Amino acid sequence: DISPVALAGRIAIEDRWFENIGEFLRLGHCLVAPSRGEGWCRPLAEALRAGMPIIGSSFGGQTDYLSDATGYVLRAQLERCRYTLGRNWQGVALWGSICTADLRQTMRRVVTSYDEALVKADKGRRLMELRCSPTSVAAAIGDFLIRPLVA
Fold first, then answer.
1. Greatest CA separation found in the chain?
2. Measured between alpha carbons, how far is 121 from 100 in angstroms, rounded to an integer?
3. Which residues of the chain have pLDDT under 70?
4. Do 66 and 44 meet the contact criterion of CB atoms below 8 Å apart?
5. What are the residues whose beta carbons fall under 8 Å from the beta carbon of 140, sequence distance 6 or more?
């Protein structure tokens, strides 16, 4: 049953500072970050690394690790938006708008098919271990540093 009454107490919105992301992650079963654009979305990455199911946008840096195999991807519709950078620059940029109905449906899918969500999260956790462990990052930096410079 996924009625509002059945979900009461199962969905929490936290609006406070956590000193440790692990403390925050232990409160839930899925991290949802349907932002309009992200650099890399570290909270999604940390949740995935911890083996937690994730829901995020198809627009932004999180697409390096978020796919249909590792989590739930909300398709973003790119739209023009006014953009201000500091006091001296204004212009037009793009952001990804998410359909609220798609978000609602995806959250329900996680609740009703949690075993599937955990399988995706485990694939994501293994991907993050492979790509983002200290050893992997050190190797990637080392490879970059020993490459010959091209003029």
1. 64
2. 23
3. 1-10, 12, 149-151
4. yes
5. none
